[in-house]
Design goal:
alpha+beta, two-stranded antiparallel ribbon, single chain
Length: 149
């Protein structure tokens, strides 16, 4: 009985987390952190997606050294629904229901309690979970099949 309740609680938590992640998220410039005007068309191609900026100056700064802003750009790719989570960003393992952390407005899932604990304790969740190494392990472009055709 306890096992069944635990499984149901895990499933409920996962469903609630997924519903929360579907809410509209504001987009912030990866250079300044300012809110990006939805009508603004300043963007750069990045990892088969687009990163958006508050102004042309930020676009130029990003284009000169995108590596400097890669963690925030990776987060923005997820926040703008160009990428989706496919596995644990810490290990690349299969994610499990109920093992989630909210990073700003995005839900990130994990494979085990160890990864969940590391993420929960981190003071820099974006840096930990959206660095190039973590992002490449856990997230994929949702339009990659369309791009390969």
């Amino acid at each position: 009985m306890k096992k069944t309740l635990f499984i149901l609680l895990g499933i409920f938590t996962f469903i609630c987390a997924q519903q929360e992640s579907k809410k509209s998220t504001a987009i912030y410039c990866v250079v300044t952190g300012d809110k990006v005007d939805p009508d603004m068309q300043e963007s750069s191609s990045y990892k088969n997606g687009k990163v958006y900026f508050c102004c042309g100056g930020c676009k130029e700064e990003f284009d000169e050294d995108s590596k400097k802003f890669s963690t925030k750009a990776n987060y923005q790719l997820l926040a703008t629904k160009q990428y989706t989570q496919t596995s644990c960003p810490m290990t690349g393992g299969k994610v499990k229901a109920g093992k989630v952390v909210t990073v700003n407005a995005e839900i990130v899932s994990f494979c085990c309690n160890n990864c969940l604990k590391k993420a929960t304790k981190s003071d820099d969740k974006i840096g930990l979970l959206f660095s190039d190494a973590s992002f490449d392990k856990g997230f994929k472009n949702i339009n990659i099949k369309k791009l390969k055709k």
